[in-house]
Amino acid sequence: MGILNKIIVGTLPLVPKAIVRKFANKYIAGDKLEDAVVTAKKLNDKGIMGTIDVLGEDVFSKDDAKRAKDDCLRVLEAIDKNKLDANQSIKLTSLGLKIDHDFCLETVSEILTVARALDIFVRIDMEDSTCTDETIKIFKEANSKYAKSGIVLQAYLKRTYYDAAELIKTGTSFRLCKGIYIEPAEIAYKDKQEVRDNFLKVLKLMLETNSYVGIATHDEFLVEGAYKLIEELKKTKDQYEFQMLLGVRENMRDKILRDGHRIRIYIPFGSHWYQYSTRRFKENPQMAGYVVKSIVWGGRK
Known about the structure:
This protein is an alpha/beta fold. It folds into 2 domains: about 1-30 and about 270-300, no CATH class; about 35-270, TIM Barrel, CATH 3.20.20.220. About 50% of the residues lie in helices and about 15% in strands. The protein has helices at about 1-10, 15-25, 35-45, 60-80, 100-120, 130-145, 160-170, 190-210, 220-230, 250-260, 275-285, 285-295, and strands at about 50-55, 85-90, 120-125, 150-155, 175, 215, 240-245, 265-270. An 8-stranded parallel barrel has the order 1-2-3-4-5-6-7-8, surrounded by 6 helices. Helix 1 (about 1-10) crosses helix 12 (about 285-295) and helix 8 packs parallel to helix 9. Mean pLDDT is about 90; it is low at about 290-300.
């Protein structure tokens, strides 16, 4: 069945968007900022933190990048107005990264200026390997002006340990995840256990150097490995947090919380739900199988 579901993933472009949306609702808060606010409040009521992200990436016009910036500013205002226990995640390709370095830095700086005034943390997401160097460069420049910002590193890239070691010198706050983009074997680990081993290697480095780290995973092996490192290094719960995606492995999420650890959920919203959701299906082929079953059975099973 696993192989069949993976085959199904490749057929998703043929599936009506209305059907995909039915299952995508598990992974996104909704189309509007108000939907994200409601979702964040519900999570906060359970003692769970949030990070809100406007879906969208790869813009190639300055006007589109400015619109994305304005959306980000509205998120910051909503977090402040509603007193949410949440921060913001941003993607640089939606803010002009592929247009011009200085323009993107200016756009990000505008967001961080408002974030500083409202005392809200902003996390710069990492995207595919073509963006890694520029993302780190812009982060360093932005972080030098607003320290309450952080970056994401991906454990499947072979360079990540060295990137972490360099960024640690500047007191960087990290989110560490496996990574989801398809990369060549020359630069990325392909074996599942190799990725896991590198994740724990990088995580140990971050924790040993007292870096704050968001441990972003749904992999039980990595959660258990993180637990062991936290205990071994005698970390207090204000020195790290776990992070997960909205709608993914909620039983694990609740267990981590019960075990006394802080946890933050990624809350995406916006009109660009389709691209985001199909990536989630590629990560979780079983869910793609449910989409096709819905078509076959007319939603009856």
